[in-house]
Amino acid sequence: MAKNPKSGRDGLESVSIALLQAEINRRGKSLKSLIKRRDNAIEKLKRLNELVAGSGGSAVRGGGGRERGTGLRDTIAKVLSGKTMTVGQVSDAVVKAGYVTSSPNFRMMVNQQLITNKKLFKRVGRGEYSAG
Asked: What distance in Å separates the CA atoms of residue 82 and residue 2, rounded to the nearest whole number?
């Protein structure tokens, strides 16, 4: 088949079936290895969480660093209760309250919660919020 005039290069039509099959096989082997590595890492994390819990700590599950039932919105409401704070103060207070995050944009996440949850949080001034 002719070259695609828009892209200026051949499509998959120029690749042989044998090469395509070899690439599929190579990726399949790689996928099996990755799945095995992931499963081993999950098992290791489970064992570490059990050790942490056995030592009196709380185990972090999944991507967020919070205890069961305590999400970011609820933690913000707890630290804002009866106070007026800036977004930066709220994000610092949330971390001090035990919320663990690895987000490089945590302050932005806090700000988004304050803006979108108008029933829970009230804007009292530029960048200042209070609980509901």
From this structure: 71
Tokens of 120: 């829970």
Q: Give the separation between CA 21 and CA 96, rounded to whole angstroms.
A: 54
Tokens 């990726």 belong to: 27
Token pair belonging to 131? 């609980």
Q: Which of 97, 100, 93, 105 is nearest to 130 (CA)?
A: 93
CA–CA distance, 45 with 39 (Å, rounded to integer): 10
Polymer length in residues for the chain: 132
Q: Tens place of pLDDT for every residue, the chain, 132 residues? A: 445 555 555 677 888 999 999 988 888 888 888 888 888 888 888 888 788 777 776 655 544 444 444 789 999 999 999 999 999 999 999 999 888 888 888 999 999 999 999 999 999 999 899 987
